[in-house]
Amino acid sequence: MSDFARLRQGMVDCQIRVADVTDPRVIAAFSETPRENYMPAGRRDVAYLDSRAPLGGGREMLDPMTLAKLVQLADPREGETALVVGAGLGYAAAVLSRLVAVVTAVESDPALAAAARANLAGDGVTLVEGPLPAGAPNGAPYDLIFIDGAVEDGLSALAGQLKPHGRIIAPAGRTRPTKATIFRRNGAELGAAPAFDAHAAVLPGFAAEDVFAL
């Protein structure tokens, strides 16, 4: 077993399992996905620390525990089609590619998009470069939209790309910490059910506009 494999197993045992992540498929996906291959340059050696990793421009890679809890909340199923919004360097998309049938990922930052496309070359993920709130309509409709970062507003276009009973998973809210939230389509409406605290940086395009009252 390589050093990274031992560290990955330690991450699963000491960070993920102890956070009430019990779904065996989710645990297997994290056990099989080499997080070191999706880390920022120069940070492979700290791939399995219990911390977020900076991606530049205010962007962050979620810590493993938070990501695993979000993936379990998403309840990804074999045969489903998923969209990852805010691909970053591709780690969340790689994990989900082991859990669903088809994964599309969208990234707005050109440098991150290029790196994610290279990182995900062996994972069967389609990488789309473009504004995050616009999603990836060419691959719609999706069973699951997984937002790999926080949102305060701006889900309307993504909601339109869901299947009738589809779901969006995201750390959401205007207060800190944000709440891991599952959004479900109910006709034309989008209902929200908060689940647990989830620290995450707000993704580009999803910040709420400041409103000043006179």
TrEMBL record:
Presence of the UniProt keyword Transferase in the record: yes
Pfam families: PCMT
UniProt keywords, alphabetically: Methyltransferase, Transferase
GO biological processes: methylation
Any one cellular-component term (Gene Ontology): cytoplasm
Entry keyword Ribonucleoprotein: no
SUPFAM superfamilies, per the entry: S-adenosyl-L-methionine-dependent methyltransferases
GO molecular-function terms, A-Z: protein-L-isoaspartate (D-aspartate) O-methyltransferase activity
Family indicated by similarity: Belongs to the methyltransferase superfamily. L-isoaspartyl/D-aspartyl protein methyltransferase family.
PANTHER family, per database record: PROTEIN-L-ISOASPARTATE O-METHYLTRANSFERASE (PTHR11579)
Identification of the protein by name: Protein-L-isoaspartate O-methyltransferase
Origin species: Methylopila capsulata
Gene for this chain: pcm_2
